[in-house]
Amino acid sequence: MYKILLVDDDEFSADIIRHSLRRFDLSIKYVNNGIVASEIVRRETFDLIISDVMMPEMDGFTFLEGAGPHIGDTPVIILTALDKVDCTKKLEQIHQISVSSFMMKPITKLSLMSRIARALSLQELSLVAI
């Protein structure tokens, strides 16, 4: 079973993602801010991190920057309503993070499954079939 950390302050979006992933062999831990996520990655390891960028208290960039030493080579999918160019510029400042994919909100189930499959090196059909 793959462990995924989902960090998003928008509970509606998080519920859609969790519901979409529930039927697959994936364990999802959901937190609604970067502060809690930072604490969790110090204690637990994950196969994938999906993080929103714009969150109160601690944004996704700050979370990823601070968590970098604890994340290591864990793939990261960024969810954002920001322009990809702006996100790329910001992430260039965070050298230790390897972002697997950017997803512009609103996201679709099919594109999410495809990105997760790619990040986890899974056969896409195993996630997209149902």
UniProtKB/TrEMBL annotation:
Pfam families: Response_reg (PF00072). It comes from the Bacteria. Residues 3-120 form the Response regulatory domain. The keyword Nucleotidyltransferase does not apply. The keyword Phosphoprotein applies. Signal peptide: none annotated. The modification 4-aspartylphosphate is found at residue 52. InterPro entries: Bact_response_regulator, CheY-like_superfamily, Sig_transdc_resp-reg_receiver. GO terms for biological process: phosphorelay signal transduction system. Keywords: Phosphoprotein. SUPFAM superfamilies: CheY-like (SSF52172). Gene3D superfamilies: 3.40.50.2300. This is Response regulator. The lineage of its organism: Bacteria, Pseudomonadati, Spirochaetota, Spirochaetia, Leptospirales.
